[in-house]
Design goal:
This protein is mainly alpha-helical. The protein has twelve helices and four strands. The strands form two sheets. A two-stranded antiparallel ribbon has the order 1-4. The chain has a two-stranded antiparallel ribbon with strand order 2-3. α1 runs antiparallel to α7 and α5 runs antiparallel to α11. The two termini are 24 Å apart. The relative contact order is 0.23.
Length: 307
């Protein structure tokens, strides 16, 4: 059992460091190509923090561990809002852009409901539904590009050699791939040892491990007085998790959807609604709402343990 725990922890370390190096390398190359910083943040960074979810979910699907595939994404989305934003709001008030309130959070809630509908129709996410998710993903990228065109690039280009950037991307990609393999293998072994379901391990342990990049990014930003990027990063990552991660996985193979995931999906919708209504009035996430979020996750975790 100690061996499996070590494998799981090594997997998480590889995932976090791999995603960090991949993002750094890709972002530096994007700057050298003259791509605006706002687009880099909304696409490369958001996708980079979702790389662990993507790698773990695709690996789990290929290994026929479907409970981890869906559980990882839904669990990460719940944890991203309730835990990460909850903790961040305890450090400082988190401002939110109007576009995030009016468009991005409602869109996140909409696609979460759509995922539930896709899942309960055939009790799996099919190839056709994966294509539809990818169409929405491309449409979302177009929306980000249009929004970013109005932004200004105030970030200075870092003088990093191109070979070093490519090295970061290569090494980061390898770490993410190997980390996902270790994480899935370790988590599956632990689940079997304790008699836990793949759904539980995916919604909790694996979800937390793959959400570490978002946690580190949000808390670090809050401590540095840049908490304004936290909500945008979390909402963007949640959207990428459903459209890109589930969409890509479904293109590889059909992803079975357990009936219990309906409740988890509704909890994810509820998390989005709490965030939406909690930030609508003051256009920022404040400590009282953060406390409510943390309490919500505590009750959700108790539910998972009892079930």
């Amino acid at each position: 059992m100690i061996k499996q725990i070590i494998i799981l922890l090594v997997g998480f370390i590889f995932l976090v460091k791999g995603a960090d190096w991949f993002v750094e390398g890709a972002a530096n190359i994007a700057r050298k190509l003259g791509i605006p910083q706002l687009i880099i943040g909304l696409t490369i960074v958001a996708m980079g923090t979702s790389m662990p979810e993507a790698a773990v979910s695709i690996t789990a699907a290929l290994q026929q561990n479907a409970g981890i595939t869906i559980g990882n994404v839904v669990g990460s989305n719940i944890l991203n809002i309730f835990i990460i934003l909850g903790i961040t709001s305890l450090i400082t008030n988190v401002k939110i852009h109007k576009s995030t309130i009016h468009y991005e959070i409602p869109f996140m809630i909409f696609i979460t409901i759509m995922l539930i509908i896709f899942g309960i129709t055939d009790m799996k996410i099919t190839f056709i539904e994966g294509i539809f998710l990818w169409i929405l993903f491309l449409a979302y990228l177009v929306y980000l590009f249009i929004m970013a065109k109005n932004g200004e690039n105030q970030d200075e280009e870092k003088n990093v050699p191109i070979w070093k950037c490519l090295g970061f991307i290569l090494i980061g990609g390898i770490f993410v791939i190997k980390g996902s393999d270790f994480a899935v293998s370790g988590a599956s072994a632990i689940a079997r040892y304790f008699g836990m379901s793949e759904r539980f391990i995916g919604l909790t342990i694996v979800a937390f491990g793959t959400s570490l990049p978002e946690l580190v990014t949000s808390v670090t930003a809050a401590k540095r007085g840049n908490a304004g990027i936290a909500i945008g990063n979390i909402v963007g990552s949640n959207i990428f998790n459903i459209l890109f991660v589930i969409g890509t996985t479904a293109l590889i193979c059909s992803v079975p959807f357990e009936s219990k995931f309906i409740i988890d999906g509704m909890i994810a919708v509820g998390a989005g609604l709490v965030l939406w209504f909690g930030t609508m009035k003051h256009q920022e996430l404040r400590k009282p709402c953060g406390i409510i979020m943390l309490l919500c996750y505590m009750f959700y975790f108790i539910y998972l343990c009892l079930m």
